[in-house]
C-alpha cells in the first residue's frame, strides 16, 4: 500500500504528454491484431493511392488512405508501431545491459580490464554511428533480430563511458570501502553496492537513447538495410512513400513521419524529465 | 607538454589500431569473408585472387597483418561496381560532401548561435522556453523527415526549389538545411550553457560594474568568450556532418560520401562500405587528437589533469 | 551451353548465298537522309541505373542489356542489332556465309576511323575478339576454327562445324564483334581504357564521374550519319520520382523508366511525353519445387491455379498503365521462332477449384517469393493475388546482382522465384537460358525438352527447326513451368526539347538509340 502511494506520488508530476504518446504506441503495438482494420501486408490494386477520408475520393474504410499497392496506411502504422517498439526497446535494453555491465567492470576493476574496455569503447565511439550500423548491416543482412544486434553493438559504448565515470567516483565512497573491509568479494560489491547506484543513470541514458535508436532504425529501414520491406516498419513506409510524394500523395510521408517524430519526441521529453527526477547530476548529458 | 602530446598521440594510434581490428573481426564474423570481398557472380579466378590478396587460407593474425599492410599503404580495395580504387572514389566525392557540410554548418550556426544567446540572456523566460522547444524539435525531427517535408512544401507545392540533384546553389539549400537542422539544436544548447557560464563569471560582473551597457557586455565580452567551445564543437561537427549525411544525401540525390555509401549498400559493393566506415572513423580519431592538442596548447590546465 | 543452334537469317544466307548486308545497306541509304548541319545542343538523359566503367568496354559484356546503352554511343560493331534489322551491317558493309555455313566473311567499310583518327582495320576486329571475355565466350571459342584477316578490310571466320545460331551469338547476344582500337588499348592498357575509352561509335568520350554522370560528344565523321546533337550527358538519378522532377524542371530531357502513377503524371503534364518501348523484358514466376514430389507445386493443377490467380490486367493497369503485354510464354513475341501461347485468363473461381482438386482447399504456405528489388512492386502484386486464393508467400526482394547470383547458385530451392530477362537472342537462346537442364537458372529438367533442344541445335533445315522449337514452347506452356506475368512495356518520358527520342528504334532494344538518329527540336 505504501509502495503504491509512493508510486502515485512519483507519477503525480510525471509529464502527461510523453506518457500518453508512448502509452498509445505501446497499446497499438500490443493489440495491433485487433486494432488494425485491414491486413497490413495485403491490399487491392484497384484501391491504390486513396487519400485520407476527409479528402475527396477518400473513404472511411481507409481512414488514412492507402499506399502504392492499395494497403491500408492506418493498419500499417499500427503494425509499424510494433516494429518500432520491439526494435527500439530491445535494442535499448540490450545495449544498456551490455554497456552498464562493461562500464561497472571497467570502472571498478581498473587496471588492464579498464584499459581494454575503455580503449575499445574509445575506438568504437569514434566510428560514426549510422555509418557503423550500415557497415554491420551490410555484413549480417537485414532482419528485425539483426537490427537489434546492430543497434546494441553500435550504442553500448555510450553507457559504458558514462557508467565507468560514475563508478570511479563511487569507488571512493565510504560504503564501498566498508564493504571491502567487511570482506565482500569484488563481484558482490559490483552487484550489490555499485549497480544500484548507477542504475538510475543507465535508465535516464536509456530513455534518451530510445529516441536515437528509433531514428537510427528508421534511417536504416529508409536506406533499405533495416527491417526488410514487406514488414510495415515506419522507415520502410517513408521510403516507399517518397515516390508518391512527388505527385502529391503526401499522406504516405506525413503519416509515418509524424509517428516517428511523436515517438522520438516522447522519448526525449521523458528522458529530460527522468534526468531531473532521478539524477540531477546528469545535466550535461 | 611534449609528454602529453606524445601520450595523446599514442592513444590515437591505439584507437586507430583497435578500429581496424574491429572492422577486420566483424568482416570475419560471418565465417566466410570471401562472399563479402568478392563481387556477386565472381569467377573462380577472382575468388582465388581475393583469397591470395587477403591471405584467407592463413591463420587469422596473418590475415590481420595482410589487412593492416594494405591499409597502411592507403589501399582500401577496389569498388566492384566502379572498378576504381575506393580511396579515389572517396576523394572524388569529398568536395561535394564538404560543400554540403559547409553550407549546413553555416545554417546551423546562423540558427543556433543567436537563439542560444537569446535563450541565455532571457533565461527562464519566454525566449528561453521557445529555445528549449526548438532544441527538442531539432533532436526529435530526423533529418530525412525534415528533408521529405521540405520537398513536399518547396518542390511539390510551391515549386521553388529543385527536389534533388546537384549543379546549382539552389540544389544545395534544402539538403544543407535538413542536415544543419539537427546540429543547429546542438549548437543552440551549447551556446546557451556556455553563455550562462560566462555571464556568471567575475569579469562580466566587473564589466557591468564599469557601467557598460548590457548589450555591450553581452556582445563584446560574454559572447566572445562563450564562442570558444561552440567553435570547437562546430569544428568536430563538420566531420560528423560528412558522416551522418548519408540519409540526407539519399533523399536529395546529392553526390557526396553519403550517397557513395548508399550506392555501396545497394550494389552490394562491400569494399566501398568498408572504406567509408574506416575513413570516417579515422577522421574522427584524428580530429579528436587535434582538438585535444590545440586545447592543451591554449589552456595549460588540461595538460595537468591527465 | 555448348550446344549450337540456328537463326533464320543465317539460314537465309545458307540457302540463298546472298549478301544480305549489301542489300540492307541499300535500304538504309534510301531510308535515312544524312544530316549535313553541324551537331549542336546538349541532350541530358536521366539514367535509372548507375553507370559502371565496365560498360565502356565491349570486351566485358554480360547477359545484361543496360551496358548496351553506352556501347551504342561509344562503340560500333561489324554487325549489330539496328534500326534496319537484327543483325544489320555496321562497320562491315557486307557479310556473307558459305553454302555449308562454315565460313563467314565480313568486309569492313572503307575509310572508317576510331575517335582518335586511327583507321578501323580487320586487325582491330581480331584483337577485339581475342581480348573478349564476356558472356558465352567458351561457346564462341569452341566453335571457331580460325579467325583470319587476309587484308585490312576483310575478316574470315571459319567454324569447326555448322552452327545455325553463330550469328545470333556473335553479333547479338554477346559483345564479341564490337571493335576496340588495338593500338590505343595496347598503349593505355585495360584500366586506362576504362578511364578514357576510344571507340568507333557516333559519340566520343569526354568525361566520367562515377555514379554522377558521363559526358559524350558527337563524332561527326561517323559513317552512318553525322550525329545531330553535339553533346549527350547521361546523368545517374537512381530515384524514379527524382528523375521525373528533374525532367519537369527541364534539368534533363529524357528520363528512363518512369512507371505507374509517375507515368500517369507524365501523361497529365503538358510538354512532357510518355515514350513506350513495347517489347521490353519478360517477367514470370518460376516454381523451383515442381520437381519435388513432396511439394504442392509438383502438381500441375497447383501451378495452373497460380496462373489463373493472377489478375493480369489489373496489375498491368495499376503498375504500368496497361502498356505491358500479357502473354502465356516467357519468349518475347518479337523473337524469332516464337510460338504464340494462349493468353492467360484471370479466373479466381477456377484457381480455387484447381487448388481444391489438388488437395489444398484451404491453400498452403509456399515460403518465400524471391524477386529483384527494382520490380518488387510486381512481386507484391503477385503475392497479393496468390494470397487471395490461399497460397501464402512472403516477399523477399533482393538487389539485382545479389538476386541473380543467388538464383544461378540455386539458393532458391523452395518457394517462388520471379525471373526476368531482356537479353538479345531468339526463342532458342531463351529456352537454353531458362529451361534446358544445363542452364544455371533451371532447378530441374524435363528430359523430353532436353532431347528436343539437342535435336533443334543440329537441325539446319529452318522449317524443321522452327517446328521443334514451337513444340518445345508448347510443352513448356502445357507443363506450366512458368507463369508469365507480362512482357514489360518499358515506360520513359521525354521533355519538350526532344525531337526524336530514339526509344525502341533498334530492334529488340528498349533504350534510346541509335544516338546519331536522335534530335533536338529547333529552338
Written overview of the protein:
The complex is a heterotrimer of chains A (285), B (306) and C (523). Chain A is mostly helical and 285 residues long. Helix content of chain A is 73%, strand content 0%. Chain A is built from 11 helices and no strands. With 306 residues, chain B is mainly alpha-helical. Chain B has a domain at 94-266: MetI-like fold (Orthogonal Bundle), CATH 1.10.3720. In chain B, helix 5 (86-121) runs antiparallel to helix 6, helix 7 crosses helix 8 (169-199) and helix 8 crosses helix 10 (214-244). Chain B is flat and about 80 Å long. In chain B, 44% of the residues are buried. Chain C has a 7-stranded mixed beta sheet. In chain C, strands 17-16-18-15-19 form a 5-stranded mixed beta sheet. Chain C has a 4-stranded antiparallel beta sheet with strand order 5-6-8-7. In chain C, 56% of the residues are buried. Classes of the chains: A mainly alpha (285), B mainly alpha (306), C alpha+beta (523). Chains in contact: A-B, A-C, B-C. The interface between A and B is large, with 43 and 52 residues.
TL;DR of this structure?
The complex is a heterotrimer of chains A (285), B (306) and C (523). Chain A is an all-alpha fold.
SSE inventory with pairings:
The complex is a heterotrimer of chains A (285), B (306) and C (523).
Chain A: H1 2-12, H2 16-30, H3 32-35, H4 73-109, H5 111-126, H6 129-140, H7 144-171, H8 174-181, H9 186-223, H10 234-245, H11 251-278
Helix pairs in contact in A: 2-4, 2-11, 4-5, 4-7, 4-9, 5-7, 6-7, 7-9, 8-9, 9-10, 9-11, 10-11
Chain B: H1 2-29, H2 34-37, H3 44-54, H4 60-72, H5 86-121, H6 126-140, H7 143-157, H8 169-199, H9 202-209, H10 214-244, H11 246-252, H12 257-266, H13 270-298, H14 300-305
Chain C: H1 8-16, H2 20-31, E1 40-47, H3 67-74, E2 76-77, E3 79-82, E4 85-89, E5 92-97, E6 103-108, H4 122-131, H5 137-143, E7 144-151, E8 154-159, H6 166-173, E9 178-179, H7 182-195, E10 203-209, E11 213-218, E12 229-236, H8 240-248, E13 254-255, H9 260-268, E14 273-277, E15 282-286, H10 300-309, H11 312-320, H12 348-357, E16 364-372, H13 376-389, E17 391-398, H14 400-408, E18 416-421, H15 427-434, H16 447-458, H17 462-478, E19 482-487, E20 490-494
Parallel strand pairs in C: 1-12, 1-13, 16-17, 16-18
Antiparallel strand pairs in C: 2-9, 3-4, 5-6, 6-8, 7-8, 10-11, 11-12, 13-20, 14-20, 15-18, 15-19
Amino acid at each position: 500500500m505504501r509502495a503504491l502511494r509512493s508510486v502515485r506520488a512519483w507519477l503525480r508530476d510525471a509529464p502527461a504528454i510523453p506518457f500518453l504518446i508512448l502509452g498509445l504506441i505501446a497499446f497499438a503495438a500490443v493489440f495491433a491484431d485487433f486494432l488494425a482494420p485491414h491486413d497490413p501486408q495485403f491490399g487491392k490494386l484497384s484501391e491504390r493511392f486513396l487519400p485520407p477520408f476527409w479528402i475527396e475520393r477518400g473513404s472511411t474504410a481507409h481512414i488514412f488512405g492507402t499506399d502504392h499497392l492499395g494497403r491500408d496506411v492506418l493498419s500499417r502504422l499500427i503494425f509499424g508501431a510494433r516494429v518500432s517498439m520491439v526494435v527500439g526497446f530491445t535494442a535499448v535494453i540490450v545495449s544498456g545491459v551490455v554497456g552498464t555491465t562493461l562500464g561497472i567492470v571497467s570502472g571498478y576493476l581498473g587496471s588492464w580490464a579498464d584499459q581494454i574496455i575503455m580503449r575499445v569503447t574509445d575506438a568504437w565511439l569514434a566510428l560514426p554511428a549510422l555509418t557503423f550500423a550500415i557497415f554491420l548491416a551490410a555484413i549480417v543482412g537485414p532482419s528485425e533480430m539483426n537490427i537489434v544486434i546492430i543497434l546494441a553493438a553500435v550504442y553500448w559504448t555510450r553507457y559504458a563511458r558514462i557508467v565507468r565515470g560514475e563508478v570511479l567516483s563511487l569507488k571512493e565512497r565510504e560504503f564501498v570501502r566498508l564493504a571491502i573491509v567487511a570482506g565482500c568479494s569484488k563481484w558482490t560489491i559490483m552487484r550489490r553496492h555499485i549497480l544500484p547506484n548507477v542504475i538510475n543513470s543507465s535508465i535516464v541514458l536509456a530513455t534518451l537513447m530510445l529516441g536515437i535508436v528509433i531514428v537510427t532504425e528508421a534511417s536504416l529501414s529508409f536506406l533499405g538495410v533495416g527491417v526488410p520491406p514487406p514488414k510495415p516498419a515506419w522507415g520502410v513506409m517513408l521510403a516507399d512513400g517518397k515516390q508518391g510524394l512527388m505527385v502529391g500523395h503526401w499522406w504516405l510521408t506525413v503519416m509515418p513521419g509524424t509517428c516517428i517524430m511523436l515517438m522520438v519526441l516522447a522519448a526525449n521529453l521523458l528522458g529530460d524529465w527522468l534526468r531531473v527526477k532521478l539524477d540531477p547530476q546528469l545535466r550535461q548529458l | 607538454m611534449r609528454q602529453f602530446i606524445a601520450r595523446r598521440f599514442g592513444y590515437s594510434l591505439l584507437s586507430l589500431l583497435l578500429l581496424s581490428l574491429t572492422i577486420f573481426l566483424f568482416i570475419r564474423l560471418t565465417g566466410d569473408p570471401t562472399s563479402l570481398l568478392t563481387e556477386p557472380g565472381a569467377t573462380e579466378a577472382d575468388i582465388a585472387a581475393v583469397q591470395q590478396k587477403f591471405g584467407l587460407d592463413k591463420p587469422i593474425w596473418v590475415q590481420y597483418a595482410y589487412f593492416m599492410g594494405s591499409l597502411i599503404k592507403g589501399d582500401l580495395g577496389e569498388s566492384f561496381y566502379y572498378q576504381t580504387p575506393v580511396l579515389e572514389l572517396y576523394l572524388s566525392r569529398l568536395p561535394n560532401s564538404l560543400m554540403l557540410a559547409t553550407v549546413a554548418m553555416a545554417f546551423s550556426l546562423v540558427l543556433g548561435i543567436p537563439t542560444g544567446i537569446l535563450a541565455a540572456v532571457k533565461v527562464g523566460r519566454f525566449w528561453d522556453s521557445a529555445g528549449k522547444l526548438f532544441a527538442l524539435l531539432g533532436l526529435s525531427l530526423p533529418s530525412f523527415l525534415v528533408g521529405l517535408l521540405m520537398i513536399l512544401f518547396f518542390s511539390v507545392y510551391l515549386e521553388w526549389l529543385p527536389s534533388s540533384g546537384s549543379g546549382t546553389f539552389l540544389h544545395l539549400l534544402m539538403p544543407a538545411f535538413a542536415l544543419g537542422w539537427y546540429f543547429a539544436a546542438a549548437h543552440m544548447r551549447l551556446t546557451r550553457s556556455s553563455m550562462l557560464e560566462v555571464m556568471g563569471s567575475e569579469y562580466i560582473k566587473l564589466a557591468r560594474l564599469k557601467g557598460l551597457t548590457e548589450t555591450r557586455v553581452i556582445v563584446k565580452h560574454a559572447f566572445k568568450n562563450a564562442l570558444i567551445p561552440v567553435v570547437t564543437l562546430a569544428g568536430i561537427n563538420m566531420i560528423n556532418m560528412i558522416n551522418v549525411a548519408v540519409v540526407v544525401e539519399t533523399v536529395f540525390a546529392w553526390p557526396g560520401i553519403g550517397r557513395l555509401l548508399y550506392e555501396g549498400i545497394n550494389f552490394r559493393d562491400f569494399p566501398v562500405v568498408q572504406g567509408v566506415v574506416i575513413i570516417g572513423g579515422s577522421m574522427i580519431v584524428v580530429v579528436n587528437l587535434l582538438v585535444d592538442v590545440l586545447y592543451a596548447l591554449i589552456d595549460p590546465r588540461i595538460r595537468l589533469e591527465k | 551451353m555448348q550446344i549450337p543452334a540456328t537463326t533464320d537469317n543465317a539460314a537465309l544466307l545458307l540457302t540463298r548465298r546472298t549478301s544480305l548486308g549489301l542489300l540492307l545497306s541499300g535500304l538504309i541509304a534510301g531510308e535515312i537522309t544524312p544530316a549535313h548541319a553541324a551537331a549542336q545542343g546538349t541532350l541530358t538523359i536521366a539514367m535509372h541505373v548507375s553507370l559502371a566503367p565496365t560498360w565502356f568496354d565491349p570486351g566485358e559484356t554480360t547477359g545484361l542489356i543496360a551496358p548496351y546503352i553506352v556501347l551504342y554511343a561509344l562503340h560500333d560493331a561489324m554487325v549489330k542489332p539496328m534500326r534496319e534489322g537484327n543483325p544489320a551491317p555496321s562497320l562491315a558493309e557486307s557479310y556473307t556465309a558459305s553454302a555449308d555455313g562454315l565460313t563467314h566473311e565480313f568486309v569492313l567499310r572503307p575509310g572508317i576511323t576510331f575517335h582518335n583518327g586511327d583507321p578501323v582495320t580487320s586487325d582491330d576486329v581480331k584483337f577485339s575478339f581475342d581480348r573478349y571475355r564476356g558472356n558465352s565466350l567458351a561457346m564462341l571459342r569452341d566453335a571457331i576454327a580460325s579467325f583470319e584477316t587476309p587484308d585490312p578490310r576483310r575478316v574470315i571466320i571459319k567454324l569447326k562445324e555448322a552452327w545455325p545460331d553463330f550469328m545470333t551469338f556473335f553479333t547479338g547476344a554477346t559483345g564479341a564483334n564490337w571493335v576496340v582500337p588495338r593500338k590505343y588499348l595496347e598503349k593505355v592498357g585495360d584500366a586506362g581504357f576504362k578511364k578514357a575509352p576510344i571507340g568507333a561509335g557516333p559519340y566520343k568520350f569526354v568525361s566520367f564521374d562515377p555514379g554522377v554522370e558521363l559526358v559524350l560528344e558527337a563524332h561527326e565523321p561517323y559513317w552512318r550519319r553525322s550525329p545531330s546533337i553535339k553533346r549527350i550527358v547521361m546523368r545517374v538519378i537512381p530515384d524514379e520520382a527524382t528523375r521525373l522532377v528533374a525532367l519537369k524542371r527541364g534539368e534533363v530531357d529524357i528520363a528512363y523508366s518512369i512507371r505507374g502513377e509517375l507515368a500517369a503524371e507524365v501523361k497529365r503534364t503538358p510538354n512532357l511525353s510518355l515514350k513506350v518501348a513495347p517489347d521490353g523484358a519478360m517477367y514470370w514466376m518460376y516454381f523451383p519445387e515442381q520437381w519435388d514430389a513432396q511439394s504442392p507445386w509438383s502438381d500441375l493443377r497447383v501451378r495452373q491455379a497460380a496462373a489463373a490467380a493472377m489478375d493480369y490486367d489489373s496489375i498491368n493497369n495499376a503498375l504500368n498503365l496497361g502498356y505491358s503485354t500479357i502473354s502465356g510464354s516467357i519468349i518475347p513475341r518479337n523473337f524469332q521462332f516464337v510460338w504464340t501461347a494462349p493468353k492467360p485468363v484471370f479466373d479466381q473461381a477456377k484457381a480455387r477449384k484447381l487448388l481444391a482438386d489438388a488437395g489444398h482447399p484451404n491453400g498452403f504456405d509456399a515460403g518465400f517469393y524471391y524477386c529483384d528489388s527494382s520490380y518488387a512492386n510486381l512481386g507484391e502484386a503477385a503475392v497479393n493475388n496468390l494470397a487471395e486464393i490461399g497460397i501464402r508467400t512472403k516477399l523477399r526482394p533482393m538487389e539485382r546482382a545479389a538476386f541473380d547470383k543467388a538464383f544461378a547458385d540455386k539458393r532458391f530451392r523452395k518457394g517462388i522465384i520471379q525471373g526476368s530477362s531482356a537479353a538479345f537472342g531468339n526463342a532458342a537462346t531463351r529456352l537454353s537460358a531458362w529451361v534446358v537442364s544445363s542452364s544455371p537458372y533451371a532447378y530441374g529438367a524435363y528430359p523430353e525438352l532436353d532431347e528436343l533442344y539437342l535435336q533443334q541445335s543440329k537441325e539446319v533445315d529452318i522449317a524443321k527447326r522452327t517446328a521443334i522449337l514451337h513444340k518445345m514452347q508448347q510443352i513448356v506452356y502445357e507443363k506450366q513451368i512458368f507463369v508469365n506475368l507480362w512482357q514489360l512495356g518499358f515506360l520513359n518520358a521525354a521533355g519538350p526539347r526532344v525531337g526524336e527520342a530514339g526509344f525502341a528504334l533498334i530492334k529488340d532494344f528498349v533504350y534510346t538509340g541509335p544516338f546519331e538518329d536522335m534530335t533536338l527540336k529547333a529552338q
